[in-house]
Write a structure and sequence with these properties.
Layout (H helix, E strand, L loop, with lengths): L2 E6 L3 H13 L4 E7 H7 L8 E7 L1 H10 L9 E8 L2 E7 L1 H5 L5 H20 L2
Antiparallel strand pairs: 1-5, 2-3, 3-4, 4-5
Helix pairs in contact: 1-5, 3-5
């Protein structure tokens, strides 16, 4: 499966707040947060699902993977999604290992597995 997704009883806002705090423990910061519902509605497109995309980065890890192969920049920054579906809030991400598998580098897969484990832990703590 290319993604990791969990459900929480928190509202999307509460989940984002918890996730942002938990990411700090792994030296990840939120670079940008997109309110997709708000942006689409602003553009005249009706969309009712609360949906947020957080772009997160750990600068040390970013430098590390880009030094191995600049093509990794196509996958950066890491994206996390928080959304409400059928009355339940979900937190998820595409797995870094699913992206790195396309580059075919053992060194990058090792780094991606570590980052994936750390981001998954941050998500799990945010439930």
């Amino acid at each position: 499966m290319f993604h990791y997704t969990v459900e929480t009883t928190k509202t999307p806002d509460q989940a984002i707040e918890a996730l942002t705090e938990n990411l700090k423990t792994e030296s990840f910061g939120v670079l940008w947060q997109l309110d997709l519902k708000g942006k689409l509605n602003e553009k005249g497109v009706e969309f009712d699902m609360p949906y947020y995309i957080l772009e997160v980065c750990n600068p040390v890890e970013a430098k590390r993977v880009l030094s191995e192969n600049p093509l990794v920049g196509y996958f950066l920054p890491c994206k996390l999604a928080v959304y409400a579906e059928n009355g339940k809030t979900k937190i998820g991400m595409p797995k870094p290992t699913s992206f790195m598998g396309m580059i075919e580098s053992e060194a990058l897969m090792s780094i991606a597995a570590d980052i994936e484990q750390r981001l998954t832990a941050c998500i799990d703590k945010s439930i």
